[in-house]
Amino acid sequence: CFAKGTSVFNGIEELRVKESDRIKSMEDGLKPLGIKISSTKSSVKIAGTNSFKLNKKIKIDAKGDHRIAMSFYVLSQVLNKSFKIKDFNYVKTSFPSFTKTINKLKKN
């Protein structure tokens, strides 16, 4: 979402049938932030921006998917904004030191 122009990802239909529909989950999380994102069955188009809607409490439903939770945690750190991420506890199963690792990277 920080890239200039529009990013298009094709051939990603398998992301619809993982722990969650990851394409829909990303759309549901990014649209309220003011990011223009659209999808088809097998593609996603994201318009780059550096202007985000961060004036309210941001709630993300990871839908039980640790990768969605991790993605939005990283975005929250980049934007320096606290997100309330539902099902974030699933991250501990796949990457127990995830937040510690990201916070260490952020300091560097």
From TrEMBL:
Keywords: Transferase. The keyword Transferase applies. GO terms for biological process: chorismate biosynthetic process. One of its GO terms (molecular function) is 3-phosphoshikimate 1-carboxyvinyltransferase activity. Residues 1-101 form the Enolpyruvate transferase domain. Pfam families: EPSP_synthase. InterPro entries: Enolpyruvate_Tfrase_dom, Enolpyruvate_Tfrase_sf, EPSP_synthase_CS, RNA3'P_cycl/enolpyr_Trfase_a/b. The keyword Transferase applies. This is 3-phosphoshikimate 1-carboxyvinyltransferase. It comes from Candidatus Fonsibacter lacus.
